[in-house]
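Hi everyone, sorry if this is the wrong subforum. Our group has a chain we'd like a structural model of before ordering constructs, and none of us has done structure prediction before. Sequence below.
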Amino acid sequence: MLNFLYIAGGISVLLVAVAATYALIRLGRALARLEETLLTADDALREVIPEVRDGLANANEVAAGVNVALRTAGVGAGRLTEAAERSSYRASATLYGVRVAAASLWRTFAGPDPSRGEQPDGR
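Answer:
Right subforum, don't worry. Here is the predicted structure as tokens:
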């Protein structure tokens, strides 16, 4: 009976060794495929990275140009606003002067206004 146990144990150990060998062979194949995939991806990245950098450089140049244009437009809008304010004040003053002059001219041609208490001799 002891011989049977030795034979069964030996066969079991051989089966475990064969299964472990098969698992290690499959693991080796999977790792080899993974290495090929990683090397291919590395080569592809090495080819693509310069193009991506060029694209980013172009995007940065465009963004810089847009920033300059926006700054220039902002300064121009500020100057235009200031000029419009000055022009508005000037136009308002001009219109007030025209109104006063027209009223004075009207009073000159219309003659004395009794409702304001003006006398015919201009007092």
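For your construct planning: The chain has a mean pLDDT of 86. The two ends are 152 Å apart (CA to CA).
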